[in-house]
Design the sequence.
């Protein structure tokens, strides 16, 4: 399927998510795994940061509070997500939001000190091309941080494939590391970020069979892959 068609399918799907309020709920769902990642990133007050797949913009707003002399760019393929993100950040002077896909980041080479992507990369039409684009826009010495809940090493997420309405990539941690290294990153590694959120007694969502499976998924944790540009 051509990337332009896949991006349009992604836009339509995540516009539906935005209209259903998923952009706002992502903060609650993702913050437990994002906060440890932000601590490891060591964001400096002057950093220029890119959030790929920013959704409703909660993480952009969070990072903006840490880069008083820097800037944050949030990018998402969904124009509805970006519209909502812009409305939520009108009081911030150091943020910007653009509509776009990771296959063509609308910035020059060597533009950012840090790039982060949370729960976005397995939707990218071409994961390898996305990693290469992130490498291109990073400055030498900059780093990329990708958080992934849907990955091969966590057996408790595999059933999500029956729920997805758009194509996804189910890759292992080692496979993501390989994409980073092929793009030119050094000091590439992956680790697990466990989710300490208490599990409810009963689970009625569509992603897990029951509360026990949700608890097991959280114990396995999200996959964090990171690397630096030489």
Sequence:
């Amino acid at each position: 399927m051509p990337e332009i068609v896949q991006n349009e399918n992604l836009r339509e799907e995540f516009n539906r998510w935005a209209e259903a309020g998923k952009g706002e709920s992502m903060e609650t769902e993702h913050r437990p795994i994002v906060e440890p990642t932000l601590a490891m990133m060591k964001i400096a007050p002057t950093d220029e940061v890119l959030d790929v797949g920013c959704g409703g913009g909660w993480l952009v707003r969070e990072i903006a509070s840490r880069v008083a002399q820097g800037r944050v760019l949030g990018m998402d393929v969904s124009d509805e997500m970006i519209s909502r993100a812009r409305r939520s950040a009108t009081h911030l002077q150091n943020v910007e939001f653009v509509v776009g896909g990771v296959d063509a980041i609308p910035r020059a080479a060597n533009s950012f000190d840090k790039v982060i992507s949370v729960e976005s990369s397995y939707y990218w039409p071409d994961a390898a091309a996305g990693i290469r684009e992130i490498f291109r826009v990073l400055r030498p010495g900059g780093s990329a941080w990708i958080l992934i809940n849907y990955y091969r090493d966590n057996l408790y997420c595999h059933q999500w494939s029956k729920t997805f309405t758009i194509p996804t990539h189910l890759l292992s941690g080692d496979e993501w590391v390989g994409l980073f290294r092929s793009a030119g990153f050094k000091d590439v590694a992956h680790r697990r970020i466990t989710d300490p959120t208490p599990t409810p007694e009963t689970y009625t969502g569509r992603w897990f069979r029951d509360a026990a499976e949700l608890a097991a998924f959280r114990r396995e944790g999200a996959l964090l892959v990171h690397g630096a540009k030489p």
In short: The first strand starts at residue 48 and ends at 52. DSSP finds seven helices and seven strands in the chain. The chain has one domain: 3-228.
